[in-house]
Amino acid sequence: MGLSRRTFIKTGLAGAALGACGALPPVSKWLRQTDAAADPQEKVAYTYHPPNCGGRCSFKCTVKDGKLVKIEPNEWPDKRHSLICLRGLSELERVYSPDRIKTPLKRVGERGEGKFVPISWDEALTTVANKLKELKDKHGGKSIYLKASSGVEHPMFSLATMLGAQFTNHAGIDIGLSGGLHQVTGAGLFGPMNNEVTDWVNAKTILLLGNNFLETSMTDAQFFYDAKEAGAKIIAIDPAYSTTVTRCDQWISLRPGTDTALIMALINQVFANKWYHEDYLRKNSTAPFLIRADDKKLFKAGDKYQVWDKNSGSFQPYDAPGIHAELDGDFSADGVKLQTVFAALREHAKDCTPAWAAKITEVSEQVIKDLAKQYATAGPAVLAWGWGGPDKWYHADSLGRAGGILAALTGNIGRVGGGVGAANHHLPGYFAPFKGWPLPKEFRPAKPEMPATDFPQKPNSVRAVIIQGNTLNQWLANANQTAAWLKKLDLVVVVDIFHNDTVKYADLVLPTCTNFEMEYDYYNLQIRRNHIMTMQKVIDPLFESKTDFQIEKELAAKLGLAQYLPKTPGDLISARLKDPAPPLKGITLETLKANRCIQRLNAPMEPYRGNMNQVYNTPTKKIQLYSEVLLPFGAGFPAYEEPQEASPQNPLFKKYPLQFSQAHTRYRAHSSFSNARWILQIIKEPKVEMNPKDAQKRGLKNGDLVEVFNDRGKFQARYQATPEMRPGSIRVSEGWWSKYFAAGNLQNVTNSANNPRGYPLSHGPVIPFNDTLVEVKKAGGG
Amino acid sequence: MAKLGMTIDLKRCMGCHTCELGCKMQNNVPMGMLWNRILTDGGEDVDTARGEFPNLHKSWLPLACLHCENAPCVKVCPVGATFRDKDGRVLIDYARCIGCRYCMASCPYNVRVFNWQKPVREPGHSYGDAAPRPKGVMEKCTLCVERTSKGQEPRCVEVCPAKARKFGDLDDPNSEVSKAVRERGGEQLLAEKGTKPQIYYLR
Q1: Does B88 touch chain A (CB under 8 A)?
Q2: CATH class for domain A191-429+615-633?
Q3: Fewest C-beta atoms under 10 Å: which of A134, A351, A407, B107?
Q4: Span A651-778: which CATH code?
Q5: Distance from C-alpha of A691 to C-alpha of A322, rounded to nearest angstrom
Q6: Domains A191-429+615-633 and A651-778 share a fold
Q7: What number of other Cβ atoms are within 10 A of residue A703's Cβ?
Q8: What pLDDT digit, counting tens, does each position of A385-440 carry?
């Protein structure tokens, strides 16, 4: 062992020094008297963990004298999933956090100043309801916009529907690659992998693309290691030396934002070496479809796409039985030249040689060639990307499309040990859809006028926003732009647990409960990892907080609409479980109660693998290698484009030569856990992570207070010498609330530009958070 | 009678700190103290690498009391507060501990922590299963004695998401830990000191 005694002592002392942080008031002071006098007996309750990470671990919680004293992993029917991570454990402290909003609050200073006075629930709800009524009468329901952050168990969509308001459940974050992949495979929101992670053990190659899996999907780590031990070669493509890179067989560091060039070169190699799966493509994809030379659209007869049938020597509808569609060749119809999608793609990728990609990505030609061979020829291969890396770039859709096409060419979709898409958070699996509460037909939400990311930037009808969670700071880049928009609004209502950055802008703040507290016995349902879980009450609401369900109901009552809503969350749970979806057969709230709030769905025991029937959620039901939707943008096929901002070709680069990213870490899930004091024992403040070579050029020493800035804004934090950062790029891990920075807010510098190509995509344009240039200097007095 | 021990697979450990917080919860560990720490074998700060881009190294070393068979802390304790129990756990009788900290000085692994002040707990009530300790005593990992004496695994083993930790009886040649030590060549930390830890690291 290479660690010296000095190392032990040093870290030990660092731990001891933290003792000084313990000067906060004891939390028991904040507890309501009733809690202290509550049932002295110990009880056990089962719930699951929703905040943002999507892991949905099921918990066994012990409550003593009305207080949460222990959180353990619940026992799952599939015991491999009896898991928890540091974030779940830290809830024990976070529930009782001094950052809790204890009463409803009313703004007294300027909006954004953060000055509030406590008010009663009645006053808060009456004020909100009256204002909403007034806005709806004067300007229509579309003047109200409701947004719930991820991790909110009960978004108030019913209320929004009854108000005729605009609402969205996603907004520009983590959807860049997914929008592109949707064009190819019909992948749903966030573009989850087709195969669940338990199937990785059957893969020969696992290509992680900008995916710090071992930090963002900690509770799937065992499946990563199992696959590795079973002999899969795991390769990480990541500019920086991440935690996951340390455990991979190979690391390919590329210039940030150039991943599409690398994937295009792999496609080039697949064609050059004929590594594609001809029969698979003929049967399952649009490869044999024909592109017209005149307008570049796909050739149709009537409303049917046509292919050239070798058997009959004629054009036939692509889905005609008994045909043998030609993959290759030139054809013509009515004097118009036609080329198969397959041939056109080969031509399109012809110039994307490894040598070409090597110049762009700064990865050597040989490494690219070897990578192509490994991925295409070693056997089943996984192409798994993460969130927060290549996703948060202006041109991310092209990468999602190129990735889908590469997987399709090599027959890695709908295959044991294959798959393509977002690997995080155990998203794929056997599933059943849950419908919302049925409302009378006269209630209709307003059609969203624009993606949420546009509201601060473009004229629109919105005059009031109701936000559940830290949306305004976490889901919108360019915080100064967001603040300017918020100042123009008539009403900002924030429903949240903690005093985070969104709360600062509120006119009215409504304190909600953590997911451990509730007025009811049961609160909600979730499906994850082929299991269904319900959320049981653990403790009473602390302070004056109410659940989102209760707040929606009471607000609806003030508007005279409460009669349309479920009386209890239990009613909603029971209604949802009546869904005829086969995985739910035999599962009721009663059976869930009897099974520690978790049951396996009616589903086969083998790992879930999507698209095994080779039917895709696309208009043709096939893998679509060519996109007519993106033709108006000249993007029938994906192509590499230089980053919109973070490129040396940008004149701005001379002034701001550093690419800035906000990466996920294990210590937070978006901005949740920013204030978790157990976790703050490990990482106590945000750090500007930069390669020492870049720091040296700027005269910076480890620990110096620095300013990160560009034309949009600035913030200050300490510099941390991070040799794992690729020179030329810096990062601050995602989700830190501004109170942890020496000054400013990390979103002050981020880029909110929207790619016009994003609008027709299924999930709208992505916010290019990482496509951002900055410069760093020593902060005054640092 | 058993020789309770643990193996920690450093190829699987990804420095996630889940064991650290699991231990904190289970053992009612106050703020500013940790019985189980995750050290970064790399750069100066937590989670930083050693070397120059792109030639880098980083791994993690979870470290708590190693429950040495030849424990220096047991030898130096002037009041017999620190002892090895029948199953090989090194434990502290808090009622006997006089806070002299000889054991802290003698431990080559620096895994003992001392209650300098009235322990501050956040949340402000006792949590987990272990009883609170008063000011002025030494404390450390007990191999979750209240769990392992009932046949359960220590909390750090139960919660490890990477399944890097295994727990069992090193006297039983068929136990998972014995097999792992044999087959993977389990390493004892600072073996040259002769303390014979019962926690083995697998590389």
Answers
A1: no
A2: alpha beta
A3: A351
A4: 2.40.40.20
A5: 60
A6: no
A7: 14
A8: 998 799 999 999 999 999 999 999 999 999 999 999 999 877 788 989 888 899 99
Largest pairwise CA distance in chain B: 53
CB contact under 8 A, A89 and B25: yes
Out of A3, A17, A28, whose CB is closest to B39?
A3
Q: Residue A750: which of A761, A728, A734 has the closest Cα?
A: A734
Q: Using a CB-CB distance cutoff of 8 angstroms, which residues of chain A are in contact with residue B48? A: 720-724
- d(C-alpha B18, C-alpha B27), whole Å: 14
Mutate to test the interface with B, among A251, A253, A682, A693 (most CBs of B within 10 A): A682
| Per-residue model confidence as pLDDT tens digits over A454-511 | 999 999 999 999 999 999 999 999 999 999 999 999 999 999 999 999 999 999 999 9
State both tokens at B168. 């069992």
Under an 8 A CB cutoff, do B11 and A225 touch?
yes
Please report which confidence band the pLDDT of residue A781 belongs to, taking 50, 70 and 90 as the band edges: low
Centre a 10 Å sphere on the Cβ of residue A517 and count the other Cβ atoms it contains.
Answer: 21
- Write the DSSP assignment of A297-362 as a string of letters: PBPEETTEEEEEETTTTEEEETT-TT--B-SS-EEEETTEEEEEHHHHHHHHTTT--HHHHHHHH-
A484: left (phi over 0), alpha (psi -120 to 50) or beta: alpha
User: What would the CATH number be for the domain defined by A100-169+438-512+547-565?
Assistant: 3.40.50.740
Copy the structure tokens of residue A141: 């329901």
The 3 state secondary structure assigned to A24-84 is: CCCHHHHCCHHHHCCCCCEEEEEEECCCCCCCCCEEEEEEECCEEEEEEECCCCCHHHCCC
Find, among A210, A203, A195, A193, the residue nearest to A229 by Cα.
A203
Q: How many CA atoms lie within 13 A of A29 on its CB side?
A: 7
pTM recorded for the entire structure: 0.95
Contact B20 A682 (CB under 8 A): yes
Evaluate if residue A5 carries a pLDDT over 50: no
Q: For chain B, what are the domain ranges? A: 4-202
Judge whether residue A38 has pLDDT over 50.
Answer: no
Left (φ > 0), alpha (ψ -120 to 50) or beta: where does B156 sit? alpha
Chain B residue with Cα closest to A249: B11
CATH of domain B4-202: 3.30.70.20
Question: What ipTM is given for this predicted complex?
Answer: 0.97
Tokens of A66: 């009305």
Residues of A in contact with B157 (CB under 8 A): none
8 A C-beta contact, residue B92 and residue B79: no
A28 in reach of chain B (CB within 8 A): yes
- Residue B56 touches partner A, C-beta closer than 8 Å: yes
Do B58 and A724 lie within an 8 Å CB cutoff? yes
- Domain definitions of chain A by residue range: 1-96+514-541+568-603, 100-169+438-512+547-565, 191-429+615-633, 651-778
pLDDT band at B13 (very low <50, low <70, confident <90, very high): very high
Cα gap B113→A16, rounded to integer Å: 8
